[in-house]
Amino acid sequence: MENNNQYLQMFFDESAEYLQLLNENVLLLEESPDDEEIINAVFRAAHSVKGMSATMGFDRLTDLTHKIENILAKVRNKELSINEDIIDLLFAGLDYIKSLVEDIRSAGEENTDVSAYLQELDNCLNHSNDVIDDKGDLRSDGDLAYSSYLKLNEEEEKNIANKMKDTDCVYNIEVILDKSCLLKNVRGYMVLKKAQEIGYLAKSNPTQKEIEDEDFGDSIYIILVSTLDSESIIKEFKNIVDVAEVKIDLNDLKSTRKVETSVSNKKKTSSKNEKKKKTSLSNMQVSPTVRVDINKLDNLMNMVGELLINKTRLEGLNIKTDIYQDIIQQLDRVTMDLHHIVMQIRMVPIGGIFNRFPRMVRDLSKELNKEINLMIEGADTELDRSIIDELADPLMHIIRNSADHGVETPEVRKAKGKAFEGVILLNAYQKGSEIIIEVEDDGKGIDVDMLTEKALEKGIITVEDIEDMDEKDKLQLVFHPGFSTSEKVTDVSGRGVGMDVVKRVVESLDGQVYIESEKDVGTRFTISLPLTLAITQALMVKIDDEIFAIPLGTISETIMIKPDEIQQVRGQDVIILRDTTIPLVEGSRQLNLNVEYGQYINKEEIPAVIINSGEKQIGLIVDELLNQQEIVIKSLGNYLINIKNISGATIVGDGDVALILDVRNIA
User: Fold this and answer.
1) pTM summary value
2) Which of 155, 230, 382, 550 sees the fewest Cβ atoms within 10 Å?
3) Active site residues
4) CA 636 to chain centre
């Protein structure tokens, strides 16, 4: 086991990936039960989990996946039809696999009792004949049934026609390997290679990739175009070690004449007659990606950050020699390229998180007796890996809430004139330097009156507070810890249960979450997040002789205001900018600096930064606009993390520390 420890993390990582893949493909299989590609994909993933488990010595997991594989093999061989019971059985198996992997991760051994589930699998396998597909043309003992294994599409038939000469025949071939064959993938590879040597290999089942993965049974089905007669072809294949039997007949592309020939079992121990002809099989595909520990990427990012800081300090020296300027330009180019590359390495599609939810929504639909369709858009939107890892829980809470308290039951929806099936839309897209994630349902919406009534009842707000709150402020009450309007908190969720976690996690990622809701129309949660938490472009400003950084993604523009342009609305200084009224906020006041406030009105020109936060805009008044530069964001640490209006710090050219303004809180 000691030797295995170094591979445990790899086992956990790959198990998680295969489980995700299995969940996605079983969902697809439920929608397309006859799709052979999906069936094969599920089989391959289950087979891979079994192989990994056996290698690591986890017997219970190996046994479990082996029996699941048996079920899938019967499905693949058309001996078992996919129905809801089989899908439920497969999903239950995936849950047991996950549970066993978690056992190994937490306790180092398999504790979950899977005996009852294994019995279910055995029962299914033993009674599979009851659900054998009743298509008469399927495989029967002793017969070839290529039509169910190798169906040629139109393009493949055209390819065969183009390749065929007058002397060629098209053959259906089944090459059966000996059951005791130890190197099935090697023998399968040799079978395909032999087929290419003696003719044109039009199609095979399994494919080359499946053979490389040893993802097939004992038979290899081939459609071959060749000038050789059937006896010669059988002889060629029989010369391969571990080939037990070869069956062959003519494909009706050339003739309907059937010349099926069966050769009895007879092992061969030599493959010396193999000859190289024509082209060989293509080389095994080498994955263009490698798995890298996220901590190593963090270290690399930190080093790039240090490089950027020192480059900024060098620029600050402002030495006026050609050689120095040339070096600075070269250094600037290299650091920018390096930064870009590191950022690209860290960016991953958000689909990795999104793809967890279809299975969850399926289970919720059954549990809640509702019809819910989860639609996913923008799954290829990329986000920094460190942010994506934190998003799963907030999104899960929101989706569970939408399913439980948003989408109505089919009967209620019908009474409201809505579609029988409710929809939850999960959408992601990039907007400037932010990533927007929306979870929208077409359910009953949030009753704002009930929301405020509950908040009053719980003492969260007062009557006076309500007078100053608009609808958006009232909707934000659902994020208050422990707040819920639900009379009955279910196992799934209660509106408000867990939503404070959503807000806390999103804000810890320097993001924000908003709610929009309309009664009987639906609710939309919008999460805005920065692309990355490490390095960003910022505008440097001076407030009371201190330098502050404002992330560029939050800024729409900078302006110089003349005092006579400032107007008053309800005691608030505002300006009218292109017909939009924008309130002015004094930076020094927001930061509680020890200066006399309101003196900006005496200046001839007042520098201001127009900041966007959601749908809000404010004009942040500063003392001086400095320059734009790339900054490395440093955390303030746990002791200073909750300072209002400050989100972090950075190091400027002279080596001093500049604080980064959390302008979305200011707005």
Assistant:
1) 0.62
2) 155
3) 47, 69, 401
4) 30
